[in-house]
Amino acid sequence: MITNLAQGVQAFTSNVFLVTGDVTALVDVGANFDVVSRIGEHTDELDRVYLTHTHPDHVGNVAAVTDGFDVAVWGFDADNPDVDHAVEDGETVEIGDDSYVALHTPGHKNDHLCFYSRGAGVLFAGDLVFANGGFGRTDLAEGHRPTLIESLDRLREAIDEELSEMHVGHGPSVTQRPYDDVELAGRAARMG
Q1: CA 135 – CA 126 distance, rounded (Å)
Q2: Residue 5's closest CA among 28, 163, 74, 92?
Q3: Which sign does the torsion angle of CA 129, 109, 49, 35 carry?
Q4: φ/ψ of residue 18, rounded to 5
Q5: What's the number of domains the chain is made of?
Q6: 2-13: per-residue pLDDT in tens?
Q7: Which pTM value belongs to this model?
Q8: What's the domain range around 144?
Q9: What CATH number does residue 28 fall under?
């Protein structure tokens, strides 16, 4: 089961996805709200924390989560102080009851990862792509539009039209034809 713990939060934060199952995990921890109590409403323990990337709105609650649940944090760049263990491009990780491949998708930030499970038909897209063909901004440090376009193309090639859920870093998850939103984001990124 996938629950967005940041649903309804008015503070500046990313979405925070709690995925329960064999490996109960968080995908991103958000910022500026009490995520620990929200986790506690659903589970008493976490097995893993995965970061799509290390912008402050996605990692602000790392210390609270690691202190509250004695859990390690996994991300692309193990040199980042918020990351305990590196996830390599192409590595398979367990989230909930499913296996996900980690895809290194820079352009919004150098350490950006997406997590995709073909078997479950689920994608955690971070800030690479959003609903309705939105895509990650490239005007921040490490942002680079041509690299973002390459990452969008790589993601589109990795997923298939059977994708049923795309959980994004901000805004609503996409549960109606999310593949189309990824294609649209690739076209939109080329236009701007």
Answers
A1: 10
A2: 28
A3: negative
A4: -95, 125
A5: 1
A6: 999 999 999 999
A7: 0.98
A8: 2-191
A9: 3.60.15.10
